[in-house]
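Chain A, query sequence.
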Amino acid sequence: MIGLTRRQGEVLAAIKEYIARVGFPPTMTELAGLIGCSSPNAASDHVKMLQRKGYISIASGVARGIAVVDNGSDLDAISVVKALLDGGANAKERAVAWLELQGVKL
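Chain A, predicted structure.
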């Protein structure tokens, strides 16, 4: 999977938190409110990017069609640590994004 920006991590975390709280995914309008966007189109752009990066899937034509893809977070943690040890490009940003996905507040 491709790394996330800080904002994309925030959007993904908002989706996961909403699903954990109510049991189903948010609509674009609800997601826009959760992430502080003024329009559902802005939320939709974030969702499309998360889909392109492989973090979620979207059921076409369904209002609550967002599904979080299980990305094997334990394996992802190993790649994050290896990148930090090797001094890889964007290693710090990847580590921060991964921690935020795990619910760690920085």
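The beta strands are 56-58, 66-68. The mean pLDDT is 85.
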